[in-house]
Amino acid sequence: MTETPSFRSDISVELVKHSAADTDVLWAARVSTAGEQSLAEIDKDPERSKGLINYLMRDRHGSPFEHNSMTFLIGAPIFVFREFHRHRVGWSYNEESGRYRQLDPVFYVPGQDRRLVQRGRPGKYEFVPGTAEQHALTGKVMEDAYRQSYAAYQELLAAGVAREVARAVLPVGLFSSMYATCNARSLMHFLGLRTQDERARVPSFPQREIEMVGQRMEEEWARLMPLTHAAFNANGRVAP
């Protein structure tokens, strides 16, 4: 059966499972001085311990921020995941496989708010919006290429060619999905590199599409660990 390609400019991020709270940082840190009694921190109001969390962040005592877990289901173009997988320490990934299932024809096309034109030299790039004509051309060329590549993919599958071979004709603009599991420390390192923020002590220049993913993940994390998130921002968005 011939499937018709569809196109989208958004990404999706869903927090599917978590064990993460500011109190996880507190009892992990206080075991140094309180031993097993530090578990009592679980039942205490974390507001009373803002100072400790800020101290740990400021002086980069990082291990207490590792005793938590968040699992996200992410839908994004394949090229985003290729950047994402550069983050290895404190991360676990499982992505849908083109070897074992036929891949759906959903492809990425930049939205009108995506800055299209790159100016400058390496290390000093600037991105500007681009003209209406450039946006129209980008959408048309991408959609035509996607339709052609997916038709070739279906032709190979119909001829009995294995999925793992046929997928080679598909572009990196194809949407994929994966589970990504991390802790707060590894997520902070990711955010420091993959988001732009005026509070950041070290500037970062991420590709917009992976920044979109990072911003959505940060929203979920901030809801789970508000004191830790606030300390991260107050101390220059540098992972401890």
Automatic annotation (TrEMBL):
Comment on bound cofactor: Binds 4 FAD per tetramer. Each FAD binding site is formed by three monomers.
Keywords: FAD, Flavoprotein, Methyltransferase, NADP, Nucleotide biosynthesis, Transferase
Gene3D superfamilies: 3.30.1360.170
Cofactor entry: FAD
Binding site for FAD: 63, 86-88, 95, 183-185, 189
Swiss-Prot/TrEMBL GO biological process terms: methylation
Pathway listed: Pyrimidine metabolism; dTTP biosynthesis
InterPro entries: Thymidylate_synthase_ThyX, Thymidylate_synthase_ThyX_sf
GO molecular function: thymidylate synthase (FAD) activity
UniProt: dUMP binding residues: 83-86, 95-99, 167, 194
UniProt EC number: 2.1.1.148
Subunit structure: Homotetramer.
NCBIfam families: thyX
Descriptive protein name: Flavin-dependent thymidylate synthase
Species per Swiss-Prot/TrEMBL record: Streptomyces litchfieldiae
